[in-house]
TrEMBL record:
It is an enzyme of class 3 (hydrolase). It comes from the Bacteria. Pfam families: Creatininase (PF02633). Its cofactor is Zn(2+). The keyword Hydrolase applies. The keyword Nucleotide-binding does not apply. SUPFAM superfamilies: Creatininase. GO terms for molecular function: creatininase activity. Belongs to the creatininase superfamily. Keywords: Hydrolase, Metal-binding, Zinc. This is Creatininase.
């Protein structure tokens, strides 16, 4: 893999001249159940970015570790959040600086849903004003069709916060960080109006900071999910000009 933070400027310039492309991990720090780390989104963003880099030879740029996670704020601790405007300004300045060095394609690896609107704004503005192309690998969403036939459950029971899909991913990527003895099915709270956003703090509904049933998760499932999804992303990037 090619990590910008480990490169000297001579080699960085050489590698960027080859592709003029960069992968940027954008994560979050937030409660992810009692069995997964609070830096889950950041760790996944970095791990996936590294795997993409290994397959396609693009440089992985600086990570953005903390995102907009106000909806998952826990008064007792575990969530770190920044305002959307703070994230927007910081991330834009990073991308703008890198664009000055010749990068004209950015692949954001952004698992955290709360960051998607900010990345969308930046990407749209860069394309319109500087003809810089951007794409987003929205990890927890892109894996959903790929997971069919792999996971025990479909839909929300499998893809809810820290449920089967997320736990399987961590069992494969970072098994050292999974507290397997804490896996527990907490179910899904009934909602007769899911089509109407109500902006209820997450931990008010799910005090244990996760949703659904992670107990069917396994490293083998995680390996399939990661392998198939990374291959699809690489296939896309190879034809993206």
């Amino acid at each position: 893999m090619l990590l910008m933070k480990e490169m000297n400027f001579v080699d960085y310039r050489t590698e960027i001249a080859k592709t003029r492309a960069m992968i940027l991990p954008v994560g979050a720090f937030e409660v992810w159940g009692p069995h997964l780390p609070v830096g889950a989104d950041t760790l996944v963003a970095e791990e996936i970015a590294n795997r993409i880099s290994e397959k396609i030879g693009w440089v992985v740029g600086p990570s953005v570790p903390v995102g907009y996670s106000e909806s998952l704020f826990a008064p007792e601790g575990g969530t770190v959040t920044v305002r959307p405007e703070s994230l927007r300004n910081y991330l834009y300045d990073i991308v703008d600086s890198l664009a000055e060095t010749g990068v004209n394609r950015f692949c954001f690896v952004g698992p955290h849903l709360g960051n998607v609107s900010v990345i969308t704004e930046i990407a749209t503005h860069l394309r319109r004003t500087r003809n810089v192309k951007c794409c987003l690998i929205d990890w927890w969403r892109i894996i959903q069709p790929i997971c069919r036939g792999i996971l025990k459950y479909d839909g929300r029971p499998a893809h809810a916060h820290a449920a089967e899909a997320g736990t399987s991913t961590f069992m494969y990527l970072r098994p050292d960080l999974v507290k397997g003895e804490r896996l527990k099915d907490v179910g899904l709270v009934a909602n007769e109006y899911p089509d109407i956003p109500q902006f209820i703090p997450f931990v008010e509904t799910y005090p244990e900071a996760h949703v659904g049933d992670p107990t069917p998760a396994s490293a083998e499932k995680g390996e399939q999910i990661v392998g198939k999804t990374v291959d699809r992303v690489v296939e896309f990037l190879k034809q993206w000009h």
